[in-house]
Specification:
Layout: H1 2-19, E1 21-27, E2 36-43, E3 52-62, H2 64-70, H3 75-82, E4 101-109, E5 121-125, E6 137-141, E7 145-147, H4 154-157, H5 161-174, E8 186-190, H6 195-206, E9 210-215, H7 220-225, E10 230-233, H8 239-242, E11 251-254, H9 259-267, E12 276-279, H10 284-291, H11 293-315, E13 318-321, H12 328-339, E14 347-352, H13 356-364, E15 371-375
Parallel strand pairs: 8-9, 8-11, 9-10, 11-12, 12-13, 14-15
Antiparallel strand pairs: 1-2, 3-4, 3-6, 3-15, 4-5, 5-7
Helix pairs in contact: 5-6, 10-11
The structure holds NADPH dihydro-nicotinamide-adenine-dinucleotide phosphate (NDP).
NADPH dihydro-nicotinamide-adenine-dinucleotide phosphate binds at residues 63-65, 163, 166, 190-191, 193-197, 214-216, 234, 255-256, 280-282, 322-324, 366-368.
Length: 377
Protein backbone atom coordinates (compact mmCIF):
# COMPACT_ATOMS: atom_id res chain seq x y z
CA UNK A 1 0.00 0.00 0.00
CA UNK A 2 2.83 2.39 0.95
CA UNK A 3 4.70 1.84 -2.32
CA UNK A 4 1.44 2.27 -4.21
CA UNK A 5 0.88 5.61 -2.44
CA UNK A 6 4.42 6.78 -3.29
CA UNK A 7 3.87 5.70 -6.91
CA UNK A 8 0.59 7.66 -7.02
CA UNK A 9 2.21 10.78 -5.53
CA UNK A 10 5.10 10.61 -8.01
CA UNK A 11 2.73 10.22 -10.92
CA UNK A 12 0.46 13.00 -9.69
CA UNK A 13 3.50 15.27 -9.32
CA UNK A 14 4.79 14.15 -12.74
CA UNK A 15 1.48 14.91 -14.39
CA UNK A 16 1.24 18.32 -12.68
CA UNK A 17 4.77 19.11 -13.85
CA UNK A 18 3.81 18.16 -17.40
CA UNK A 19 0.79 20.42 -17.32
CA UNK A 20 2.79 23.09 -15.52
CA UNK A 21 -0.22 24.11 -13.45
CA UNK A 22 -1.60 23.57 -9.96
CA UNK A 23 -4.60 24.44 -7.78
CA UNK A 24 -4.42 27.53 -5.60
CA UNK A 25 -6.59 30.16 -3.97
CA UNK A 26 -5.59 33.51 -5.43
CA UNK A 27 -6.67 37.12 -5.45
CA UNK A 28 -6.50 39.29 -8.58
CA UNK A 29 -7.28 42.53 -6.73
CA UNK A 30 -7.48 43.69 -3.11
CA UNK A 31 -10.84 43.64 -1.35
CA UNK A 32 -13.20 41.67 0.87
CA UNK A 33 -13.72 37.90 0.86
CA UNK A 34 -15.30 38.03 -2.62
CA UNK A 35 -11.87 38.55 -4.22
CA UNK A 36 -10.77 35.03 -3.23
CA UNK A 37 -10.84 32.72 -6.28
CA UNK A 38 -9.82 29.07 -6.63
CA UNK A 39 -8.11 28.04 -9.85
CA UNK A 40 -6.60 24.82 -11.26
CA UNK A 41 -4.53 26.80 -13.71
CA UNK A 42 -2.02 28.59 -11.55
CA UNK A 43 1.54 28.32 -12.80
CA UNK A 44 3.53 25.73 -10.85
CA UNK A 45 6.44 27.35 -8.98
CA UNK A 46 9.86 26.22 -10.15
CA UNK A 47 13.24 26.22 -8.49
CA UNK A 48 15.04 29.38 -9.58
CA UNK A 49 17.86 29.43 -7.03
CA UNK A 50 20.30 26.66 -6.13
CA UNK A 51 19.28 27.12 -2.47
CA UNK A 52 15.55 26.60 -3.06
CA UNK A 53 13.31 23.64 -2.29
CA UNK A 54 9.97 22.87 -3.91
CA UNK A 55 7.40 21.81 -1.31
CA UNK A 56 4.12 19.95 -1.79
CA UNK A 57 1.74 21.64 0.65
CA UNK A 58 -0.19 19.31 2.95
CA UNK A 59 -1.60 21.95 5.30
CA UNK A 60 -1.62 25.74 5.69
CA UNK A 61 -2.97 28.13 8.29
CA UNK A 62 -4.34 31.67 8.38
CA UNK A 63 -3.10 34.65 10.37
CA UNK A 64 -4.61 38.13 10.85
CA UNK A 65 -2.02 39.24 8.26
CA UNK A 66 -3.82 37.21 5.56
CA UNK A 67 -7.04 39.10 6.19
CA UNK A 68 -5.16 42.39 6.11
CA UNK A 69 -3.15 41.49 2.97
CA UNK A 70 -6.34 40.45 1.17
CA UNK A 71 -7.41 44.07 1.65
CA UNK A 72 -4.10 45.50 0.39
CA UNK A 73 -2.28 45.98 3.71
CA UNK A 74 1.46 46.31 3.27
CA UNK A 75 1.24 46.38 -0.54
CA UNK A 76 3.70 49.27 -0.90
CA UNK A 77 6.49 47.84 1.22
CA UNK A 78 5.95 44.23 0.10
CA UNK A 79 6.14 45.29 -3.55
CA UNK A 80 9.53 46.85 -2.87
CA UNK A 81 10.70 43.67 -1.13
CA UNK A 82 9.54 41.51 -4.06
CA UNK A 83 11.22 43.65 -6.69
CA UNK A 84 13.76 46.02 -5.09
CA UNK A 85 15.24 47.26 -8.38
CA UNK A 86 11.88 47.41 -10.24
CA UNK A 87 13.30 45.10 -12.91
CA UNK A 88 10.44 42.63 -13.19
CA UNK A 89 8.71 42.86 -16.54
CA UNK A 90 5.37 41.84 -15.04
CA UNK A 91 4.91 44.75 -12.65
CA UNK A 92 2.05 43.24 -10.65
CA UNK A 93 1.78 41.00 -7.61
CA UNK A 94 -1.39 39.37 -8.98
CA UNK A 95 -2.51 36.63 -9.03
CA UNK A 96 -1.41 36.71 -5.38
CA UNK A 97 -1.46 33.58 -3.21
CA UNK A 98 -2.03 34.21 0.52
CA UNK A 99 -1.22 31.83 3.42
CA UNK A 100 1.85 32.23 5.64
CA UNK A 101 2.23 28.74 7.16
CA UNK A 102 3.10 25.50 5.45
CA UNK A 103 3.53 21.92 6.51
CA UNK A 104 4.37 19.60 3.63
CA UNK A 105 6.83 17.38 1.81
CA UNK A 106 9.93 18.34 -0.18
CA UNK A 107 9.60 17.17 -3.79
CA UNK A 108 12.62 18.79 -5.42
CA UNK A 109 15.83 20.49 -4.25
CA UNK A 110 18.15 23.06 -5.84
CA UNK A 111 21.72 21.96 -6.54
CA UNK A 112 23.17 23.60 -3.39
CA UNK A 113 20.56 22.43 -0.88
CA UNK A 114 22.33 20.45 1.82
CA UNK A 115 19.85 19.96 4.68
CA UNK A 116 16.84 18.61 2.81
CA UNK A 117 16.09 15.84 0.35
CA UNK A 118 12.98 14.86 -1.63
CA UNK A 119 10.55 13.08 0.68
CA UNK A 120 11.48 15.09 3.82
CA UNK A 121 8.53 16.33 5.86
CA UNK A 122 9.02 20.04 6.52
CA UNK A 123 7.34 23.11 8.00
CA UNK A 124 7.97 26.80 7.41
CA UNK A 125 6.66 30.33 7.77
CA UNK A 126 6.32 31.80 4.29
CA UNK A 127 7.59 35.42 4.09
CA UNK A 128 4.77 37.83 3.16
CA UNK A 129 6.67 38.93 0.06
CA UNK A 130 6.59 35.39 -1.37
CA UNK A 131 3.71 33.42 -2.89
CA UNK A 132 1.83 31.76 -0.03
CA UNK A 133 0.72 28.32 1.04
CA UNK A 134 -2.95 28.27 -0.08
CA UNK A 135 -1.70 26.25 -3.05
CA UNK A 136 -0.57 22.73 -3.90
CA UNK A 137 3.10 23.73 -4.20
CA UNK A 138 5.44 26.53 -3.19
CA UNK A 139 9.16 27.24 -3.22
CA UNK A 140 11.24 28.55 -0.33
CA UNK A 141 14.94 28.87 0.31
CA UNK A 142 16.56 26.22 2.45
CA UNK A 143 17.17 28.78 5.21
CA UNK A 144 13.43 29.39 5.61
CA UNK A 145 12.53 25.70 6.04
CA UNK A 146 12.84 23.25 8.92
CA UNK A 147 12.13 19.56 9.49
CA UNK A 148 8.57 19.14 10.82
CA UNK A 149 8.24 17.74 14.37
CA UNK A 150 7.69 14.00 14.09
CA UNK A 151 5.01 14.05 16.79
CA UNK A 152 2.67 16.38 14.87
CA UNK A 153 0.33 15.78 11.96
CA UNK A 154 0.58 18.19 9.04
CA UNK A 155 -2.57 20.05 10.16
CA UNK A 156 -1.19 20.47 13.68
CA UNK A 157 2.24 21.50 12.37
CA UNK A 158 0.78 24.16 10.04
CA UNK A 159 -0.59 26.03 13.06
CA UNK A 160 2.86 26.86 14.43
CA UNK A 161 5.56 28.37 12.12
CA UNK A 162 4.39 31.97 11.52
CA UNK A 163 3.40 32.66 15.13
CA UNK A 164 6.53 30.84 16.35
CA UNK A 165 8.98 32.80 14.18
CA UNK A 166 7.17 36.05 15.09
CA UNK A 167 7.25 35.28 18.82
CA UNK A 168 10.91 34.24 18.67
CA UNK A 169 11.89 37.35 16.74
CA UNK A 170 10.05 39.57 19.26
CA UNK A 171 11.15 37.77 22.42
CA UNK A 172 14.76 37.01 21.42
CA UNK A 173 15.80 39.85 19.09
CA UNK A 174 13.68 42.69 20.50
CA UNK A 175 13.28 41.69 24.16
CA UNK A 176 16.63 39.92 24.63
CA UNK A 177 15.16 36.77 26.20
CA UNK A 178 16.43 33.23 25.67
CA UNK A 179 16.29 29.83 27.34
CA UNK A 180 19.27 30.74 29.59
CA UNK A 181 18.12 34.06 31.06
CA UNK A 182 14.40 33.64 31.80
CA UNK A 183 14.33 31.95 35.20
CA UNK A 184 14.16 35.29 37.04
CA UNK A 185 12.11 37.17 34.43
CA UNK A 186 8.49 38.31 34.74
CA UNK A 187 6.75 38.65 31.37
CA UNK A 188 3.32 40.13 30.63
CA UNK A 189 1.63 38.98 27.40
CA UNK A 190 -1.39 40.98 26.17
CA UNK A 191 -3.80 39.12 23.88
CA UNK A 192 -2.59 35.76 25.19
CA UNK A 193 -5.48 33.71 23.74
CA UNK A 194 -4.57 34.19 20.05
CA UNK A 195 -1.99 32.55 17.80
CA UNK A 196 1.12 34.44 18.95
CA UNK A 197 -0.05 34.52 22.57
CA UNK A 198 -0.75 30.79 22.96
CA UNK A 199 2.66 29.99 21.47
CA UNK A 200 4.53 32.63 23.52
CA UNK A 201 3.06 31.47 26.85
CA UNK A 202 4.34 27.94 26.24
CA UNK A 203 7.77 29.04 24.99
CA UNK A 204 8.33 31.35 27.96
CA UNK A 205 7.20 28.66 30.41
CA UNK A 206 9.58 26.19 28.72
CA UNK A 207 12.33 28.80 29.28
CA UNK A 208 11.38 29.19 32.95
CA UNK A 209 9.84 32.69 33.00
CA UNK A 210 6.91 33.84 35.17
CA UNK A 211 4.09 34.60 32.73
CA UNK A 212 1.07 36.88 33.19
CA UNK A 213 -1.54 36.95 30.45
CA UNK A 214 -4.40 39.32 29.56
CA UNK A 215 -7.36 37.75 27.77
CA UNK A 216 -11.15 37.51 27.89
CA UNK A 217 -12.54 35.57 30.88
CA UNK A 218 -13.72 32.70 28.67
CA UNK A 219 -10.11 32.05 27.55
CA UNK A 220 -8.72 31.71 31.08
CA UNK A 221 -8.93 27.89 31.05
CA UNK A 222 -7.04 27.75 27.73
CA UNK A 223 -4.15 30.00 28.78
CA UNK A 224 -3.84 28.44 32.25
CA UNK A 225 -3.74 25.02 30.57
CA UNK A 226 -0.78 26.27 28.50
CA UNK A 227 1.06 27.32 31.67
CA UNK A 228 0.12 30.96 32.39
CA UNK A 229 0.89 31.78 36.06
CA UNK A 230 -1.48 34.74 36.35
CA UNK A 231 -4.44 35.64 34.16
CA UNK A 232 -6.18 39.02 33.95
CA UNK A 233 -9.63 39.30 32.34
CA UNK A 234 -9.54 42.52 30.32
CA UNK A 235 -13.33 42.45 29.93
CA UNK A 236 -13.76 42.60 33.73
CA UNK A 237 -12.33 46.10 34.14
CA UNK A 238 -9.18 48.17 33.95
CA UNK A 239 -6.18 45.83 33.48
CA UNK A 240 -3.69 48.27 35.00
CA UNK A 241 -5.86 48.56 38.13
CA UNK A 242 -6.09 44.75 38.38
CA UNK A 243 -2.27 44.53 38.19
CA UNK A 244 -1.55 47.59 40.37
CA UNK A 245 -0.49 45.61 43.43
CA UNK A 246 1.54 43.11 41.39
CA UNK A 247 5.33 43.12 41.11
CA UNK A 248 6.51 45.00 37.99
CA UNK A 249 7.51 43.23 34.77
CA UNK A 250 10.79 42.80 32.87
CA UNK A 251 9.14 42.39 29.48
CA UNK A 252 5.73 43.17 27.97
CA UNK A 253 4.87 41.40 24.70
CA UNK A 254 1.93 43.37 23.30
CA UNK A 255 -0.30 41.49 20.84
CA UNK A 256 -3.15 44.00 21.16
CA UNK A 257 -1.60 47.42 20.51
CA UNK A 258 -3.28 50.79 20.54
CA UNK A 259 -2.51 53.95 22.46
CA UNK A 260 -4.43 52.88 25.54
CA UNK A 261 -2.70 49.49 25.87
CA UNK A 262 0.68 51.12 25.34
CA UNK A 263 0.04 53.67 28.08
CA UNK A 264 -0.86 51.27 30.87
CA UNK A 265 1.45 48.44 29.76
CA UNK A 266 4.54 50.69 29.75
CA UNK A 267 3.63 51.77 33.27
CA UNK A 268 3.79 48.16 34.48
CA UNK A 269 7.47 47.74 33.54
CA UNK A 270 10.23 47.79 36.15
CA UNK A 271 11.90 51.21 35.71
CA UNK A 272 15.64 51.71 35.14
CA UNK A 273 16.39 48.00 35.01
CA UNK A 274 16.59 47.29 31.26
CA UNK A 275 12.90 46.35 31.02
CA UNK A 276 11.44 46.20 27.50
CA UNK A 277 8.05 46.80 25.91
CA UNK A 278 7.75 45.03 22.53
CA UNK A 279 4.65 45.56 20.43
CA UNK A 280 3.74 43.47 17.38
CA UNK A 281 1.20 46.09 16.34
CA UNK A 282 3.30 48.79 14.68
CA UNK A 283 2.11 51.47 12.23
CA UNK A 284 4.92 50.76 9.72
CA UNK A 285 2.96 49.10 6.89
CA UNK A 286 -0.14 51.29 7.39
CA UNK A 287 2.11 54.30 7.20
CA UNK A 288 3.82 53.29 3.93
CA UNK A 289 0.45 52.29 2.41
CA UNK A 290 -1.08 55.66 3.31
CA UNK A 291 1.79 58.04 2.66
CA UNK A 292 3.98 56.21 0.13
CA UNK A 293 7.35 54.63 0.70
CA UNK A 294 9.62 57.54 1.54
CA UNK A 295 7.19 59.61 3.61
CA UNK A 296 5.64 56.51 5.24
CA UNK A 297 9.04 55.17 6.33
CA UNK A 298 10.04 58.62 7.60
CA UNK A 299 6.80 59.03 9.59
CA UNK A 300 7.03 55.53 11.11
CA UNK A 301 10.73 56.04 11.89
CA UNK A 302 10.00 59.35 13.65
CA UNK A 303 7.18 57.81 15.66
CA UNK A 304 9.38 54.92 16.82
CA UNK A 305 12.33 57.18 17.58
CA UNK A 306 10.30 59.67 19.63
CA UNK A 307 8.47 56.97 21.64
CA UNK A 308 11.73 55.13 22.29
CA UNK A 309 13.45 58.30 23.48
CA UNK A 310 10.51 59.52 25.56
CA UNK A 311 10.08 56.18 27.37
CA UNK A 312 13.78 55.76 27.97
CA UNK A 313 14.19 59.25 29.44
CA UNK A 314 10.95 59.42 31.44
CA UNK A 315 10.51 55.82 32.65
CA UNK A 316 13.84 54.12 32.04
CA UNK A 317 12.27 51.42 29.82
CA UNK A 318 12.97 50.37 26.23
CA UNK A 319 10.19 50.77 23.64
CA UNK A 320 10.49 48.44 20.62
CA UNK A 321 8.58 47.07 17.62
CA UNK A 322 8.65 43.34 16.98
CA UNK A 323 8.30 41.76 13.54
CA UNK A 324 8.06 38.34 11.98
CA UNK A 325 11.41 37.23 10.57
CA UNK A 326 12.01 34.14 8.39
CA UNK A 327 14.13 31.69 10.38
CA UNK A 328 14.34 27.96 9.60
CA UNK A 329 17.02 27.27 12.25
CA UNK A 330 14.77 28.84 14.94
CA UNK A 331 12.02 26.45 13.85
CA UNK A 332 14.47 23.55 14.34
CA UNK A 333 14.62 24.54 18.04
CA UNK A 334 10.83 24.80 18.20
CA UNK A 335 10.59 21.37 16.57
CA UNK A 336 12.77 19.88 19.30
CA UNK A 337 10.62 21.48 22.04
CA UNK A 338 7.46 20.15 20.36
CA UNK A 339 8.85 16.62 20.12
CA UNK A 340 9.92 16.87 23.78
CA UNK A 341 6.28 17.61 24.68
CA UNK A 342 7.04 21.17 25.87
CA UNK A 343 5.05 22.97 23.17
CA UNK A 344 1.59 22.02 21.93
CA UNK A 345 -0.13 23.21 18.76
CA UNK A 346 -3.34 25.10 19.55
CA UNK A 347 -5.77 24.48 16.67
CA UNK A 348 -9.16 26.13 17.02
CA UNK A 349 -10.63 25.06 13.66
CA UNK A 350 -9.63 23.08 10.57
CA UNK A 351 -11.19 23.71 7.12
CA UNK A 352 -10.83 21.70 3.89
CA UNK A 353 -9.10 23.37 0.90
CA UNK A 354 -12.50 23.89 -0.75
CA UNK A 355 -13.59 26.12 2.17
CA UNK A 356 -10.78 28.69 2.27
CA UNK A 357 -13.27 31.64 2.12
CA UNK A 358 -15.08 30.22 5.18
CA UNK A 359 -11.72 29.97 6.96
CA UNK A 360 -11.03 33.65 6.16
CA UNK A 361 -14.47 34.54 7.57
CA UNK A 362 -13.67 32.62 10.74
CA UNK A 363 -10.41 34.48 11.30
CA UNK A 364 -11.99 37.82 10.36
CA UNK A 365 -14.60 37.39 13.11
CA UNK A 366 -11.75 37.71 15.63
CA UNK A 367 -11.78 36.19 19.13
CA UNK A 368 -9.18 33.61 18.08
CA UNK A 369 -8.40 30.82 20.52
CA UNK A 370 -5.24 29.52 18.82
CA UNK A 371 -5.13 28.96 15.07
CA UNK A 372 -7.35 28.29 12.06
CA UNK A 373 -5.83 25.61 9.82
CA UNK A 374 -6.53 24.48 6.24
CA UNK A 375 -6.00 20.94 5.04
CA UNK A 376 -4.55 21.17 1.52
CA UNK A 377 -3.06 17.79 0.58
P1 LIG B 1 -5.00 36.59 16.90
O1 LIG B 1 -6.13 37.23 16.18
O2 LIG B 1 -4.75 35.14 16.73
O3 LIG B 1 -5.15 36.85 18.49
C1 LIG B 1 -5.53 38.05 19.05
C2 LIG B 1 -6.09 37.68 20.43
O4 LIG B 1 -6.22 38.85 21.24
C3 LIG B 1 -7.48 37.04 20.36
O5 LIG B 1 -7.47 35.85 21.11
C4 LIG B 1 -8.40 38.08 20.99
O6 LIG B 1 -9.49 37.41 21.63
C5 LIG B 1 -7.45 38.77 21.97
N1 LIG B 1 -7.79 40.14 22.31
C6 LIG B 1 -8.43 41.07 21.58
N2 LIG B 1 -8.50 42.24 22.23
C7 LIG B 1 -7.87 42.05 23.42
C8 LIG B 1 -7.59 42.90 24.53
N3 LIG B 1 -7.96 44.19 24.54
N4 LIG B 1 -6.92 42.38 25.56
C9 LIG B 1 -6.52 41.08 25.57
N5 LIG B 1 -6.77 40.22 24.55
C10 LIG B 1 -7.42 40.72 23.48
O7 LIG B 1 -3.70 37.42 16.50
P2 LIG B 1 -2.17 36.90 16.56
O8 LIG B 1 -1.91 36.33 17.89
O9 LIG B 1 -1.84 36.09 15.38
O10 LIG B 1 -1.40 38.28 16.40
C11 LIG B 1 -1.49 39.25 17.43
C12 LIG B 1 -1.23 40.63 16.83
O11 LIG B 1 0.10 40.70 16.35
C13 LIG B 1 -2.13 40.94 15.63
O12 LIG B 1 -2.48 42.29 15.67
C14 LIG B 1 -1.23 40.67 14.45
O13 LIG B 1 -1.60 41.41 13.31
C15 LIG B 1 0.11 41.09 14.99
N6 LIG B 1 1.23 40.41 14.35
C16 LIG B 1 2.26 41.18 13.92
C17 LIG B 1 3.35 40.59 13.34
C18 LIG B 1 4.49 41.45 12.92
O14 LIG B 1 5.39 40.99 12.18
N7 LIG B 1 4.55 42.70 13.40
C19 LIG B 1 3.41 39.16 13.07
C20 LIG B 1 2.29 38.41 13.63
C21 LIG B 1 1.25 39.05 14.24
P3 LIG B 1 -10.80 38.20 22.18
O15 LIG B 1 -11.13 39.26 21.15
O16 LIG B 1 -11.87 37.18 22.31
O17 LIG B 1 -10.37 38.77 23.49
Amino acid sequence: LASCSIWCRRNLYGSLRRHNSMSAWVIDQYGTNEVLRVSDEIMMPTINLASEVLIKVEAASLNPLDIAMRGGYGATLLKLRRDPMSVMQNDTEFPLILGRDVSGVVVECGSQVTHFAPGDEVWAAVPPWKQGSLAQYLTLTEYEVSHKPKSLSHTEAASVPYVATTALSALVNAAGLCSDNCSDKRVLITGGSGGVGTFSIQLLKAWGAHVTVTCAGNAEGLVRGLGADKVVDYTAGDVAAQLEATEKYDVVLDNVGGVDTERWALGLLRPWSGAKYVTLVSPLLHSTDAAGLAEGLARAGCSLHSKALQNLLSRGVFYRWGFYAPDGPALDEVSALVDAGKLLPVVQACFPFSQVPQAFQRVEQGHARGKTVISVG
